[in-house]
Structure of Probable S-adenosylmethionine-dependent methyltransferase At5g37990 isoform X1:
Amino acid sequence: MLRRCAMNGGEGPHSYARNSSYQKGFVDVAKPIIEEEISRKLDIKHLSSTFRIADFGCSTGHNSCAAMQIITEAIRRRFEIEGLISQLPDFYVYFNDKVTNDFNTLFNSLPRERLYGAAGVPGSFHGRLLPKAVLNFAYSSCSLNWISEVPKAVLDNTSPAWNRGKIHYEGARREVREEYANQYSKDIESFLDSRAEELVQGGLMALLVPAVPASWDPNSAYTSTSELYLFGSCFMDMAKTGRFSEAKVDSFNIPVYFPIPQEFKAIIERNDKYTIERMEVLDNPGKHNLTGPKDRAAYFRATSEGMLIDHFGSEIIEELFDRYTKKLEASPLFSDPDCDKSIIMFVLLQRKPESYCSAS
């Protein structure tokens, strides 16, 4: 069963900490929106003495710490504006990611001057992690594109959805994409249901969700899915040289899915536990931090190396990313960050009171 692994830990040249400027761009552009929504939507007059926040999919912390600073400082300013600073609650932040996540690097990254206490919560965010009605604010950035597992039919050579010779649904048969989409829908539904149990009534949840436009021209632009298609071609090239078997490629697919905005909105609307307070597509200035093919390959290596090693072994990694870098260099399309049409959605949800939830 193929599942995602944690991002590369530590502070080394292949670490997520050193290769996540792309994701940081989204945090930067979301900052004024988060601040605005906290000032408008957060009910501070009915809070207890403790305000609990969770980041689901925190990785090794550099971008997560920045986001938690934005959220806690925005709440503090709200109390100041309302003349209630003497009633400012104690802040606690729960940092969640896979059990194998490098929480040591995360806790070493915590700023000395911060408003919150911190705890690690290892485990899959597709299920329950915290006690009922404990969270006031939930947050997740660049994590909800990961599905809990590769759909079984994609790896079954007797299924119409068998994804022979590919590692992702981009460029594959319609049945493959449908299996991925169904798995994604189930996983997001589970995520929303789990957070609904953990959030207090009226609690807020801010999501930064990687996505793709409903339509784009592959001859003049690319998205995260087309990068995965290019990356996948490297595996078959290596299989043909005898580095591993084609069957080894057939048994590997990357557990990641990029919805279109309408698709994600429809999943939320099927869940009756939230109101959508805001939903929009953001720009990403971080894509200009990936100044060339080597940076793009390093960014992808930081997010995928763990699961690649699990399946293929560590001895193929250098050759694989060398091949990938050369393919990126040979493409004028992938060398231009302005051709990147991948998008991210900002979604703000509010937990409905139980009396407003219904089976409909």
Observations:
- Residues 94 and 232 are 35 Å apart (CA to CA).
- The first strand starts at residue 50 and ends at 56.
- The mean pLDDT is 94.
